[in-house]
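I am going through a labmate's work and have reached the protein record below. What it holds is a sequence and that sequence's fold in token form. Please read both lines and tell me whether the tokens look consistent with the sequence. Do not assume that whoever made the record got everything right. Thanks in advance; the entry in question is below.
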Amino acid sequence: MKSVRSAVNKPYINHFDQGGLIHDTVYKFYLNRKRKGSLSTLDDVENGSVPDDLQAISTAILENFVLGYRKSYL
């Protein structure tokens, strides 16, 4: 199971981390996730950026629609 943090939780995690309020076991888990990069997994999604590969695929799919249908999806 992949663990990610949301925009709502980021300020709380940072506050607890800076204040030393996280239990040792949880803090080790947190550091492990931070090292692996799973804490920043949703950053691009929250910022509204679209990965290049997804943009290319969606553009190719959209170009294959008939113009009338394409307008309805936009």
Notes: The mean pLDDT is 76. The chain has two domains: 1-41, 48-74.
